[in-house]
Amino acid sequence: MNSIGQEICSFSRDRLKKRSTRVTALSGRVQLETRSGDAVTVTEAGEQHCGFVQDLSLDLKVGVITPSLLLSSQDAANDLETLQKFKVTHILNVAYGVENAFPDLFTYKTITMLDLPETQLTSYFPQCFEFIAQAREQDGVVLIHCNAGVSRSASVAIGYLMSREKIPFEEAFNRVKSARPYIQPNPGFLIQLKEYVP
């Protein structure tokens, strides 16, 4: 049996097995990358898929930011049992392409917002905050949701805390993150929130 030092010295790329890596681009194009020695060959796989991994599992987790302000994904906003469990009365929908599921049971405000760094997030704050304030005046409970409950709705919640409670970005961010740990506002939203002066 050879020592590890001898194995390392006798190592040769030629002894490695030929491997291919399947790469799916954001556009959905699928390619195979095959390495042979120092050369890499790229071939089209002839398949087309989503440029992302689809997650078809339900996300019914609701983050409680304050007793009257909740945060979730579209899944919880479309689950009547979850909404009733959290005593939701008002729903702020900042998703793209998500219909309001129960218009006869809840008060809705829909503000279609794209989750892009260049979206002017703070321009939506006045109408979002006005809706939340009206709900609070009625002793209501507001659920803010977007598609995944990660970027847009979390950013609105952070901005609301900064505006209403006059707290700095870091504190507002940490409060929302402790309520829903997987929030992740996109980079453009983070810059806008850090520069936001209520």
UniProtKB/TrEMBL annotation:
Reaction(s) catalysed (UniProt annotation): O-phospho-L-threonyl-[protein] + H2O = L-threonyl-[protein] + phosphate
Cross-referenced Gene3D superfamilies: Protein tyrosine phosphatase superfamily (3.90.190.10)
GO cellular component: cytoplasm
Keyword match Nucleotide-binding: no
Top-rank taxon, per record: Eukaryota
Keywords: Hydrolase, Protein phosphatase
Protein family (similarity comment): Belongs to the protein-tyrosine phosphatase family.
Descriptive protein name: protein-serine/threonine phosphatase
Organism name: Astyanax mexicanus
